[in-house]
Design a protein that fits this description.
This protein has 8 helices and 15 strands. It has 337 residues and is α/β, with parallel strands linked by helices.
């Protein structure tokens, strides 16, 4: 390996975890406005396996073109190794974390020893938080923040004509489905900080975990379908989404809101209109300024990231296999030597 190359995980053909290959790859070069980050940790997210699988879960006309080979991943924490000539906000040696170039459909390239990142996608890593936990805060934290607290951009929404609008949370009853996962466990904490009463839905093994994060009530979906017991809610954040999210309409009061993180497959628009319920979603986007807000909460101990399992970068296949088994508590992390 030379100074022009690095170790990375690349995909040469779409498929299951077996297509992830740990190998030499060209080290990225910087464009204006970018910094080169020496990666210490990478967090896994669902878009990683959507890309690995060739976006086959999307409708055919939604599948973006991807040039192979491609390096998956978006969430990193590491140290600035070089800066473009026009960058003044960060310097070599700064510790940073972020969600890089998302959504970019294959340009993020985070499963690697080095990543080229727009300076606007990054925030300074809190000194008291290690790289693994900082990486885990990026996409999951931004998703929870943009759905619940502040959208923070005016980019077109691919899922609906109107922009997504978070709703006031103080004094509201909020149900979070998938509460033990990456987005869910951070959403609990943000909703509680905003003054909501939080009902967490997850399997029984997560009960103590989500209660420790601040959940006021818990529903074990393996025992009791949440839509049969939850009533008169103000907001449901369904971190899983998909075809089953319409079942939560019956849990909401008139004027309430249903926010599916994955809205494709939702078929309850007519019922939502009849019940006076707002259904809204959005595409999470990179934001260094929002990460700075999350960074302050992490530094003060008012937001914490849980790690499910940790793997070496070379073991990305095993990490994806762990993700496929489900039941994740927090985040799966790749550590880069």
């Amino acid at each position: 390996m030379t100074q022009d190359t690095m170790k990375a995980v690349r995909i040469h053909a779409f498929g299951g975890p077996e297509v992830l290959r740990y190998e030499d790859a060209p080290r990225p070069t910087l464009k204006p406005g970018e910094v080169l980050v020496r990666v210490h940790a990478v967090a896994l997210n669902p878009p990683d396996w959507y890309l690995r699988d060739g976006y086959r879960s999307l409708p055919a006309d939604w599948r973006p073109p991807v040039d192979l080979p491609v390096i998956p991943g978006s969430d990193v924490s590491g140290v600035v190794a070089a800066v473009a000539a026009d960058v003044t906000a960060l310097a070599v040696g700064d510790e940073v974390f972020g969600m890089v170039k998302f959504p970019s459909f294959g340009e993020s390239a985070a499963y690697a020893e080095y990543v080229a990142a727009p300076v606007t996608d990054l925030a300074r890593k809190p000194a008291a938080v290690d790289h693994a936990h900082a990486a885990g805060a990026a996409m999951a934290g931004l998703t929870a923040w943009q759905f619940l607290i502040e959208l923070g951009h005016d980019e077109p929404n691919p899922f609906q004509p109107a922009s997504h609008r978070p709703v006031p949370l103080s004094g509201q009853q909020v149900l979070i489905n998938g509460a033990g996962g990456g987005v869910g466990h951070l959403a609990i904490q943000l909703a509680k900080r905003a003054g909501a009463e939080v009902i967490a839905v997850a399997s029984g093994r997560h009960e103590q975990f989500v209660r420790d994060l601040g959940a006021d009530r818990f529903i074990d979906y393996t025992v009791t379908p949440p839509e049969t017991v939850a009533r008169d809610l103000d907001l449901v954040l369904d971190t899983l989404g998909g075809p089953t999210t319409a079942r939560f309409l019956r849990t909401l009061k008139r004027g309430g809101a249903l926010f599916p993180v994955y809205p494709l497959g939702f078929d309850g628009a007519d019922e939502a209109a009849r019940l006076g319920i707002t259904v809204s979603s959005t595409q999470v986007r990179s934001s260094g300024s929002q990460l700075e807000a999350l960074s302050r909460l992490l530094a003060e101990g008012r937001l914490r990231v849980a790690i499910d399992t940790t793997f070496a970068l070379a073991d990305a296949r095993q990490a994806h296999e762990r993700a496929a088994r489900g039941g994740i508590q927090g985040k799966i992390i790749l550590k880069v030597a």
